[in-house]
Every structure is written in C-alpha cells, then in structure tokens.
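Work Package 4 report. The design task specified in the project plan requires that, given a folded chain encoded as structure tokens, an amino acid be chosen for each position. We show below one input record used in the internal validation round.
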C-alpha cells in the first residue's frame, strides 16, 4: 500500500501537466521555449506547475506566488531526499 501512495504522488503532477499540455495553451503562454517544461516534467513537476500558475495569473513571482513557488521546490526536493534517506 505505501508503494501505491508513492506512485500516485509521483504521477499526479505529471498527468496534470500532460492534460494541460494537450488541452490548453498555458505552457506556450508561460514559457518561451519547450525545454523548460520538458525538464520540469522530468525533474521538478510541482515547481513547473507553480511557475506556470504564477506567470499566467500574476505575470510574475509576486509575494503569494513566490511562497507557492518556494513550497513547490521544497515538495519536489523532498521526493529526492526522502528516497535517499529510505535507502540508508
């Protein structure tokens, strides 16, 4: 059961990004090139979604979206740190 929860937590932001890419033009409006969303899809999906929300809604990283961005980076990096701790 814990493995299923981890898989769901890892796949949900990527599935959301896939649907956003297929159904909207938000990635094109938030990012200038294709490489940043692609790297975000692979490495930091929550951060990519938070940055896209900040760019689309506020036009930049204002105070509320800056807090959301910091939280997204912490969540993304905790996935990598938690796996390293579990291996030890």
């Amino acid at each position: 059961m814990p493995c299923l929860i981890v898989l769901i937590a890892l796949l949900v932001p990527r599935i959301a990004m896939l649907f956003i890419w297929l159904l909207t033009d938000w990635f094109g409006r938030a990012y200038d090139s294709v490489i940043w969303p692609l790297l975000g899809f692979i490495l930091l999906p929550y951060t990519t979604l938070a940055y896209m929300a900040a760019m689309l809604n506020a036009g930049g990283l204002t105070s509320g979206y800056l807090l959301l961005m910091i939280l997204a980076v912490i969540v993304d990096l905790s996935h990598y740190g938690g796996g390293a701790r579990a291996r030890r």
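DSSP finds five helices and no strands in the chain. Validation will be extended to a larger panel in the next phase.
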